[in-house]
UniProtKB/TrEMBL annotation:
Residues 1030-1379 form the Translocation and assembly module TamB C-terminal domain. It comes from Gluconobacter cerinus. The chain crosses the membrane at residues 7-33. Keywords: Membrane, Transmembrane, Transmembrane helix. One of its GO terms (biological process) is protein secretion. Pfam families: TamB (PF04357). This is Translocation and assembly module TamB C-terminal domain-containing protein. The keyword Transmembrane applies. The keyword Transmembrane applies. GO terms for cellular component: plasma membrane. It is found in: Membrane.
Length: 1379
C-alpha cells in the first residue's frame, strides 16, 4: 500500500507540477493582461513585433472574452492608411470546446480606409504547399451581432470621403466545406444577413442567405443614386442611378432565379430555373443599352441581348441574339455586330451541338490601315460538340482579305488543323508601308502535350504568290513560292526547329535550330540562303551567291561563323569569284573575330583582312591588316577606349582614282579621296590624334572641286579638344554653286565653332550664312556670338550675343533677332528667361507680316500685321502667366479671296497651371463676328467651360465661291457651350440656320430657304429638322452626330418630297428620298433607303462643255485606279423610276421606267437593274425612227463616285423586204450608234432604208446629201446641213429639194411633210417656179403596197406622167419591190 501511495505521489508530482505550472502561467497571463500595466505592455510590444505596421492604444476589457481597443492604426511607408476606433469583441472562448466559435458581438464606432496602401516590394513571399487531405475542422461559427457605426472611405478612391454603416449577423454550421472547396452539395447550413448603407447619400447593399437542407434562399439588393460610390469609384457616372436585385430561391434542384439591373439607361434581366447540383437551367436573359459613351474611347450606339437557353450550362440548347451598333473601344471599333447562338440537344450527348455565328460590319483596327477590314463584313462561324469526349470545334473566319478555318479537338489536350488563305496581299502589305501584290495560303497541324512526357508539335506548309509590287519580292519569290516549318518543344523546355524553308524562283532559304530554353537559351543553329541569279535581286547585278551560317552557344555568348561565296558582277563589270568569311566569338557582349574577303572584282584582285576585338575593359580594337582593290588601299590599327569619342591609332585609306568605281555604281564619277588618322602618344602627356581628309569629287548630280578636313584632337580620351578646319570649294549641286568654311576649336568646356558659306542660285538667288557659337558641352550651354543669314534677299540677324542652355536646365539669356526682306519693316523676336526646371520666360514677336513669307511664296499677295507677347511662369507641366496675340487687317490682295473683308483677331489667354482662361474674338467686317470665351484645360482631365457665340453672313463667301460658279446667302447664328473634360467633353447650345440658300450654276443645283438648327446635347449634335426648298419640293435632314463620342457615330435621315435640287442642261430631276445614313464616320458609314424619281430629264450633249467635269469611267473588266480613303461608305439604295425618265440628245428621245439596286461601297459599287423603254424614237437626218426596244443599265463605274450608264436601244424599219435596225449602245459618256439589217446589207443601204424607205440607188441628189449629213451627224461631226436645220426648226419629217422630171417641165421642186401617225404621211410639193402645187396623203397598207392620194393645181409635165410627177389630182396604188 505504501509503495502504491509512493507511486501515485510520484505520478501526481510528475503530472501535477507541470500542469500546475501551466495553470499558474495561464492565471498569471490572464491576470497580467487584465491589469493596466499588462495591457500597456501589450500596446508597447505590438508595434515592434509587427515591424511598426500596427499600432494599438486603449486596450481594455476582461480578456480574452471581452476585448476593447480605443484605436488601431495600420501603417506603410507613407504613414497610416487604416484606422479603427472603439473596437469591441465579445465572445466565448469556452465554446470552442464544443467546436463552436461563438461571437456575441463584433463592433466598432469607426473604420477608416484613408487611402490605398503601398505594397512592400522587398518583402519575401513564402509559398506554402496546400494539403491534399480534406480538412476536418468542423467548427461552427455564430456571429450574433456585427455592427460598424461608420465606415469612412477616403478621397483617394473617389475624390471625396464616403461614409457607410455596416450591420448584420452570421451563423454557419461548419467551416470545413469552405476550407475543402465548397460545392453546392457540401454547402453547410447557414443564415447570413448583411446591410451596408450610405450615410452621406442614398445607397444600400443588402445580402441575405439561408441554406436549409437541399434548399437555398439568396437575396441581394444594391441601390445607389446620382454620384454613387460604385460608379464614382469606376469613373462611370453615366451608370447612375443603379438598382440591382438578385433572388435565387427554392429547392437546389429547381431554384428560381430572378435578376434585374438598371444602371443609368442600361437595363438587364434574367429569369428562370437552375438545378444547382447538375448545373442544368432554363433561363431567359435580356439586356439593352442605348447610345452612350461609357468612358473616353469606349462607347456604342446600341446594345441588345436576348437569349432563351435550357439544358446543361456548359452545353445549353436554345437561341441567343446579340446586336451591338457602333461599338468603339481601345482604338478599335465595329460598325455593327450581329451574333446568333443556336444550341441543339441530341439523344446522344456527344451529338449535342452549340453553334455560334457572328458578322462584324465596319470593323476598324488600330494601326496605319484602320479601315483595312471595314469595306466588307468579317464573319465568324463556330460549331462545337461540348459534351463529346474530345470536345471538337470547327471554326471559320471569313473576309474578302482572309479566310481562316480551324478543326480542333480541345480535350484531353488541344490539337487540330488550321488553314489560312490571303487572296490579296496588297492591302495587308500596306500595313507595313510595303507595295506587294499577290496571294498566300498556309496550313498548319499542331498538338499540345497530353502528358508531362509529350512534346508540343507544329507542322506548317504554305504557298506564296507574288505578282507585283516590290521588285525584289516579285523576282526572288515569284508566283510559285513555298514555305514549310517543323518545330517541337520537349518537356525539358528544348525548342527544336527541325526545318524552316522558303523556296522561290530565285531564293532558297533553309534554317534549322535547337534552343535549350531551360539552360541559358543555348542554341545550335544552321542557316543557308542561296541566290542563284542576282539579277532577280537587282537588274544591275550579275552572278550568284550562297550564304551559310552557324550560331552556337548561349544567346549571351554566341559563336557565329558565316561564309558568303559566289560570282558577282554587274552589267558593266564582268563576273568574278568573290568570297567573304566571318568568324566571331563571344557575341554580343565581347565580340572577337575576323572578317576576310578574297576574289576577283572587275578583273582586279580583291583582298580584305580585318580583326575585331572588344577587351574586358570595354575597349574596342580594329585591325585592318589589308584592304586592296584597284586604286583602293587601306591599312591600320585603331582602338576606341570605353566611353571615348575619338579612336586612337593609325589608319590610312585612299582611293587614288574614283573612276575605278564608276562601273560598280553604274554612273560616271571622278576624283580622289584620302583619309588619314595618326596618333602620337608622348610619354607623360595625353595622346594627340591628327586627322586628315583630302579629296575631290565629280558626279553628274553634284561635285566638289576640293574637300579638305585637317587638324588635331588633343587628349581624345579624357577631355577631347579639337582643332579642326573644313573647307569646301567649288561646290555644285544642280544649279547651286558656292563654297563653305567651318572650324571647331577648343576643349569641350569652351569649344568655338564657326561657319561661313556663300552660295549662288539657291531658289534662284544668292544665299549666305555667317555664324559663330561657343559650346560648353559639360554644362550644356551655347553662346551664339554671331548669326547672319540671307536667302531670297531676306535676312535674319542676331541683335546681340545670346546664351542658350539645354539639358536639365533650359533657358535663353536674351535672344533678339530681326527677320525681313529688303525694303520691308523687319519683324522682331525677343525671348528671355528660363524654361525648366522653372518656367520664367518672356517672349515677344512684333510686326510679323505676310511680306516676310513672300520671297518664299511669290504668289502670296496679302496684307496685315501679327503681334504676340507671352509672359510665362510656373513649370512646363503647369504654366502660369499670360499670352496675347493680335492680328490686324489680315486680307488677301489678289485672287477670289481678295473680296473678303479684312480679318481682325484678338486673343488673350491667362494660364493658371492646369487650366487656361480664353478670350478670343474674330471679326471680318459686319458679316462675321465670332467669340470664344471661358476656361480651357491644359491636360486631358482638366475641366472645360467654353462658350462660343457669334454670327456669320454666308454671303461673305460669295467672292470666293463666285470664281467656281457658286453662290450662297443667309445667316448662321452660333451659341454653343462646352463643359466636362478634355477627354470627355459635353456640349450644349445650338447653331441656327436662317434663310440660307446655295446655288451651283454650272451643275444646276439650287437650294433655297434653308432653315433649321444643329442642337448640341451632351456628346452629340442633333440635326433638328433642317429643311431646304428645292424647286417645288423640300429636302429635310434629321438625326444625330456623336461629335464627342468614340468613333464619331452618325445617324441621319434624309427625306425629300418632290424636290428638284438639280436643273441644268444635262440633268433636271425631281426626286423623293427616304435615306438613312448611319455608322461611324471614322470607319464606315452606310447609306440605306429609297430614291424615287417621278420626273428626270437627261440630256446627252454632242460634246461636254468645258465647265462640266469629265467622268473618269471604268468599264466592266477594267481595273480601277487605286483611290483609297480612310472612310468606307456602304451602299444599300434602291432607285425607282415609275416613268417620265426621259433621255434626250444625239437625236434620241426616249422615256424610261425601271429600278436600280445600288449595293457595295462607294469605292466599289455593285449596281444591278436598269431602266426599260416605255416609248422612244430617234431622229436621224430629219427622219423619226420609233424604238422597239430600249434599256439603260448601270454597269459602268465612275471612279469619282459617279455612275456612267450603258445604253441599249433599237429601232427597226421594214422596207423592200429588208428589216433595217438602228442600234444605240455604249455608255452615256461615249454612246455608239450602229446599223444592222436582215438580210445583211451594206451600211449605206441600211441607212437609206431607215431614212427614206428605199435603197441607195433610188435616192435623189438631195436625199444623198441628207444621207451624207446623217453620216456626219452619227460620226459626231458638224457638217453643214441647212435642210436639216430648217426641217428640225419646222418640226417636219421630210424636207427635200427635187429636180429633173418634176412638175412644170422638170423644174426644181420643194417637198415638205410629216408622219401624223404610224404609216400615214401628209405633205405638200411646190415647184420653185410657182406654177404647180400639190398636196399628198400616203398610207402604207402593207410592207410594199401603198395608197397614194394627191390633189394638185395642174401644170405641164415633160415626158411620162408618174405618181411622183403628176401635177393633177389622183388616187392610186403603188407597189414596190427590190431588184
Amino acid at each position: 500500500m505504501r509503495a502504491r501511495r509512493i507511486i501515485l505521489w510520484i505520478v501526481s508530482l510528475v503530472i501535477g507540477v507541470p500542469l500546475g505550472l501551466v495553470v499558474l502561467a495561464l492565471v498569471v497571463v490572464l491576470v497580467g493582461i487584465n491589469i493596466g500595466p499588462g495591457q500597456r505592455l501589450i500596446e508597447q510590444k505590438v508595434s515592434p513585433l509587427t515591424g511598426g505596421m500596427v499600432q494599438i492604444s486603449g486596450l481594455s476589457g476582461a480578456l480574452p472574452q471581452h476585448l476593447k481597443l480605443a484605436r488601431l492604426a495600420v501603417k506603410d511607408s507613407k504613414g497610416v492608411w487604416l484606422e479603427l476606433d472603439n473596437f469591441e469583441l465579445r465572445w466565448s472562448p469556452l465554446s470552442l470546446v464544443g467546436m463552436d466559435a461563438h461571437v456575441k458581438a463584433l463592433s466598432a464606432d469607426r473604420l477608416a480606409l484613408l487611402r490605398k496602401p503601398i505594397s512592400d516590394t522587398t518583402a519575401e513571399t513564402t509559398e506554402t504547399q496546400a494539403s491534399s487531405s480534406p480538412s476536418k475542422l468542423n467548427i461552427q461559427v455564430d456571429l450574433d451581432v456585427l455592427k460598424v457605426s461608420q465606415i469612412e472611405i477616403g478621397p483617394d478612391f473617389t475624390g471625396k470621403a464616403t461614409l457607410f454603416s455596416l450591420n448584420g449577423h452570421a451563423h454557419i454550421a461548419s467551416i470545413a466545406p469552405f476550407l475543402n472547396g465548397v460545392t453546392m452539395q457540401t454547402l453547410p447550413k447557414m443564415d447570413i444577413a448583411l446591410q451596408l448603407a450610405r450615410l452621406d447619400a442614398a445607397g444600400e447593399l443588402t445580402l441575405s442567405a439561408q441554406t436549409p437542407k437541399d434548399r437555398l434562399a439568396l437575396a441581394v439588393t444594391f441601390k445607389e443614386g446620382v454620384n454613387g460610390f460604385a460608379t464614382t469609384l469606376g469613373q462611370l457616372p453615366q451608370l447612375d442611378p443603379v438598382d440591382m436585385h438578385l433572388n435565387l430561391v427554392g429547392p437546389r434542384t429547381a431554384a428560381a432565379l430572378d435578376f434585374g439591373l438598371s444602371a443609368g439607361p442600361i437595363t438587364a434581366s434574367s429569369t428562370g430555373q437552375i438545378n444547382l447540383y447538375t448545373n442544368i437551367a432554363n433561363l431567359h436573359v435580356k439586356a439593352n443599352a442605348p447610345a452612350m459613351t461609357l468612358k473616353p474611347g469606349i462607347g456604342w450606339n446600341a446594345i441588345a441581348l436576348n437569349t432563351d437557353l435550357h439544358g446543361p450550362l456548359k452545353a445549353p440548347a436554345g437561341q441567343g441574339l446579340l446586336d451591338i451598333d457602333a461599338l468603339t473601344a481601345g482604338g478599335a471599333s465595329i460598325g455593327h455586330l450581329h451574333a446568333t447562338f443556336d444550341g441543339t440537344e441530341a439523344a446522344k450527348p456527344e451529338d449535342t451541338v452549340a453553334h455560334l455565328q457572328a458578322a462584324l460590319d465596319g470593323l476598324r483596327i488600330p494601326g496605319s490601315q484602320p479601315t483595312l477590314l471595314a469595306s466588307a463584313p468579317l464573319t465568324l462561324d463556330v460549331t462545337a460538340h461540348p459534351l463529346a469526349a474530345t470536345l471538337p470545334v470547327v471554326a471559320r473566319i471569313d473576309h474578302p482579305l482572309m479566310h481562316v478555318a480551324a478543326n480542333v479537338e480541345v480535350k484531353p489536350a488541344a490539337k487540330g488543323h488550321v488553314t489560312l488563305a490571303l487572296p490579296d496581299l496588297h492591302p495587308l502589305a500596306a500595313i507595313g508601308s510595303t507595295d506587294l501584290s499577290g496571294s498566300a495560303a498556309l496550313a498548319a497541324d499542331f498538338a499540345m502535350p497530353v502528358t508531362d512526357h509529350d512534346d508540343l508539335t507544329l507542322e506548317s506548309s504554305g504557298t506564296i504568290s507574288v505578282t507585283g509590287g516590290q521588285p525584289q519580292a516579285l523576282h526572288l519569290i515569284g508566283k510559285d513560292g513555298h514555305l514549310a516549318l517543323q518545330l517541337s518543344k520537349s518537356p525539358a523546355n528544348v525548342l527544336t526547329v527541325k526545318s524552316f524553308g522558303l523556296d522561290g524562283q530565285a531564293l532558297h532559304l533553309l534554317v534549322s535550330a535547337v534552343v535549350d530554353l531551360a539552360h541559358g537559351n543555348t542554341m545550335q543553329t544552321k542557316a543557308t540562303v542561296a541566290l542563284p541569279d542576282l539579277r532577280q535581286a537587282s537588274p544591275a547585278l550579275l552572278g550568284n551567291m550562297t550564304l551559310t551560317a552557324t550560331a552556337d552557344g548561349p544567346t549571351d555568348d554566341l559563336a557565329v561563323k558565316a561564309g558568303l561565296e559566289g560570282e558577282f558582277g554587274t552589267k558593266d563589270v564582268a563576273k568574278g569569284p568573290v568570297a567573304l568569311d566571318a568568324d566571331f566569338q563571344h557575341l554580343p557582349g565581347r565580340p572577337q573575330g575576323t572578317l576576310t574577303a578574297h576574289g576577283t572584282l572587275d578583273h582586279a584582285p580583291l583582298a580584305l583582312d580585318t580583326a575585331v576585338q572588344k577587351t574586358d575593359d570595354g575597349a574596342f580594337h580594329l585591325d585592318l591588316n589589308k584592304l586592296s582593290w584597284n586604286s583602293l588601299t587601306g591599312q591600320g590599327k585603331l582602338r576606341l577606349q570605353n566611353g571615348a569619342k575619338v579612336p586612337l591609332g593609325d589608319l590610312d585609306v585612299s582611293i587614288k582614282n574614283l573612276s575605278d568605281f564608276q562601273r560598280l555604281i553604274g554612273q560616271a564619277i571622278k576624283g580622289h579621296l584620302a583619309l588619314a588618322i595618326h596618333t602620337t602618344e608622348p610619354q607623360g602627356a595625353p595622346p594627340q590624334v591628327k586627322l586628315g581628309l583630302d579629296g575631290a569629287l565629280a558626279m553628274a548630280q553634284a561635285s566638289v572641286q576640293a574637300l579638305n578636313l585637317k587638324g588635331t584632337i588633343s587628349n581624345p580620351i579624357d577631355d577631347p579638344a579639337p582643332d579642326l578646319a573644313l573647307d569646301l570649294t567649288g561646290v555644285r549641286s544642280q544649279d547651286i554653286t558656292g563654297k563653305a568654311h567651318a572650324t571647331v576649336k577648343g576643349p569641350q568646356s569652351a569649344m568655338a565653332v564657326t561657319l561661313n558659306g556663300a552660295f549662288q542660285n539657291v531658289m534662284g538667288s544668292p544665299a549666305n550664312v555667317d555664324a559663330a557659337v561657343l559650346l560648353n558641352l559639360p554644362k550644356k550651354t551655347v553662346r551664339v556670338d554671331r548669326l547672319t543669314a540671307m536667302a531670297k534677299e531676306e535676312y535674319i540677324r542676331l541683335g546681340g550675343p545670346a546664351n542658350v542652355s539645354f539639358g536639365d536646365i533650359m533657358g535663353v539669356d536674351h535672344l533678339r533677332a530681326t527677320l525681313a526682306p529688303q525694303g520691308v519693316a523687319p519683324a522682331t523676336i525677343d525671348i528671355a528667361g528660363s524654361i525648366k526646371p522653372r518656367l520664367a520666360l518672356t517672349a515677344t514677336v512684333d510686326r510679323l507680316t505676310p511680306a516676310i513669307a513672300k520671297p518664299f511664296a511669290p504668289e502670296l499677295a496679302a496684307s496685315g500685321v501679327i503681334s504676340a507677347k507671352a509672359n510665362l511662369a510656373g513649370t512646363i507641366d503647369a504654366p502660369t502667366g499670360t499670352v496675347a496675340l493680335t492680328a490686324h487687317g489680315l486680307k488677301m490682295q489678289t485672287g477670289p479671296a481678295a473680296s473678303l473683308p479684312a480679318a481682325e483677331i484678338l486673343a488673350n489667354i491667362g494660364l493658371a497651371g492646369k487650366t487656361a482662361k480664353v478670350d478670343v474674338t474674330l471679326g471680318a467686317g459686319p458679316k462675321v463676328a465670332l467669340a470664344v470665351r471661358g476656361t480651357a484645360p491644359l491636360s486631358k482631365e482638366g475641366a472645360i467651360a467654353l462658350a462660343t457665340t457669334g454670327h456669320v453672313d454666308l454671303s461673305v463667301a460669295n467672292g470666293v465661291l463666285g470664281a467656281s460658279g457658286m453662290a450662297t446667302k443667309g445667316q448662321v447664328g452660333i451659341n454653343l457651350n462646352v463643359a466636362g473634360t478634355a477627354s470627355q467633353p459635353r456640349a450644349t447650345g445650338r447653331v441656327e440656320l436662317q434663310n440660307v440658300s446655295f446655288d451651283h450654276y454650272a451643275q444646276g443645283v439650287r437650294l433655297t430657304d434653308i432653315n433649321g438648327a444643329v442642337v448640341a446635347s451632351g456628346d452629340s449634335l442633333t440635326l433638328e429638322h433642317i429643311l431646304a426648298h428645292a424647286g417645288p419640293g423640300t429636302i429635310a435632314l434629321d438625326g444625330t452626330v456623336g461629335i464627342f463620342r468614340p468613333g464619331l457615330p452618325v445617324d441621319i435621315k434624309v427625306i425629300s418630297d418632290k424636290a428638284r435640287p438639280v436643273s441644268s442642261d444635262l440633268v433636271t430631276a425631281v426626286i423623293n428620298t427616304d435615306l438613312h445614313i448611319h455608322g461611324q464616320a471614322t470607319t464606315r458609314v452606310d447609306v440605306d433607303g429609297k430614291i424615287v424619281l417621278p420626273s428626270v430629264t437627261v440630256n446627252i450633249p454632242n460634246s461636254m462643255p468645258a465647265s462640266v467635269a469629265q467622268l473618269d469611267v471604268v468599264r466592266p473588266g477594267q481595273k480601277a485606279p487605286d483611290n483609297t480613303s480612310s472612310l468606307i461608305i456602304g451602299l444599300g439604295i434602291d432607285v425607282i423610276s415609275p416613268g417620265q425618265f426621259v433621255v434626250q440628245g444625239h437625236g434620241l428621245d426616249a422615256e424610261m421606267q425601271g429600278r436600280l439596286h445600288v449595293r457595295g461601297t462607294s469605292s466599289a459599287p455593285s449596281i444591278t437593274g436598269g431602266f426599260d423603254l416605255k416609248r422612244g424614237n430617234f431622229n436621224l437626218a430629219g427622219i423619226n425612227l420609233n424604238f422597239t426596244h430600249g434599256r439603260v443599265a448601270f454597269n459602268g463605274t465612275g471612279v469619282n463616285h459617279k455612275l456612267d450608264p450603258t445604253l441599249d436601244f433599237r429601232a427597226d424599219r421594214n422596207a423592200k423586204g429588208t428589216l433595217a435596225s438602228l442600234l444605240v449602245t455604249g455608255y452615256a459618256s461615249a454612246p455608239k450608234i450602229d446599223f444592222s439589217s436582215v438580210p445583211t446589207q451594206p451600211r449605206d443601204e441600211v441607212m437609206a432604208i431607215l431614212l427614206f424607205g428605199t435603197d441607195a440607188h433610188s435616192l435623189s441628189t438631195t436625199q444623198l446629201a441628207e444621207l451624207a449629213a446623217a453620216v456626219a451627224q452619227l460620226a459626231g461631226g458638224s457638217s453643214f446641213d441647212p435642210l436639216g436645220k430648217v426641217r428640225n426648226a419646222l418640226g417636219l419629217d421630210r424636207l427635200a429639194v427635187g429636180g429633173g422630171g418634176g412638175v412644170d417641165n422638170g423644174g426644181t421642186s420643194v417637198e415638205a411633210g410629216k408622219y401624223v401617225m404610224k404609216g400615214v404621211y401628209v405633205g405638200a410639193k411646190q415647184a420653185t417656179s410657182g406654177s404647180g402645187t400639190q398636196a399628198q396623203v400616203q398610207i402604207d397598207l402593207t410592207k410594199r403596197l401603198k395608197l397614194n392620194t394627191t390633189v394638185g393645181t395642174g401644170g405641164q409635165v415633160t415626158g411620162f406622167t408618174t405618181p411622183e410627177n403628176d401635177p393633177g389630182s389622183s388616187v392610186g396604188l403603188s407597189y414596190g419591190f427590190d431588184y
